[in-house]
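Standup notes
- DV: blocked on the single-chain target, sequence here:
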Amino acid sequence: MKLALFRRTPRPDTIATLYGMIVAQARLPTFYRDYGVSDTVNGRFDMIVLHIALFLRRVGAEDAVTRAIGQRIFDRFCRDMDDNLREIGIGDLAVPKEMYRMADAFYGRAQAYAAALAAEGEQALVEAIGRNIYGQAAAPPEGAKWLAAYMRAAVDHLATQKPEAFAGAELSFPDPAGFVISPALS
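- DV (later): unblocked, structure below
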């Protein structure tokens, strides 16, 4: 039992807990009610991808053990997507094609967010969110601006969390309600 304190790799329940926290954050009603994210399978997928991308961005700069946590979170995401496809009735022969499409969407969005987060100002991030979350090429909705502010805050918030916390199944994100600006105040 004492050896568990010195374990270098996280236990499977740690990964399940972290993944559950990411999914729970992505499913907060504020994103769908206030930010205007579509409360559909695609909208929920996009929000999970956004949060996993933020988490992977955070752990990507750490040691190999912490990066491995990120890889295991991504693997858990892929298993979850596979399970969901089968649950909604996608046939065994079509699942690999759909998984390829989802992986392509994940990597494309993650790269777009990383580039936009590295860019000066908010315009690139708002545009990336507009395309990926709201499906709009021009004039992203107000929610895209709020989501950009939320993402920047999430990057800062995740940066304050120690890798040891992730290994101990501890993870938090900022409250998205704090980034919504009432029309009466704007």
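- Follow-up: Helices lie at 12-26, 29-33, 41-59, 64-87, 95-118, 123-132, 142-159, 163-167.
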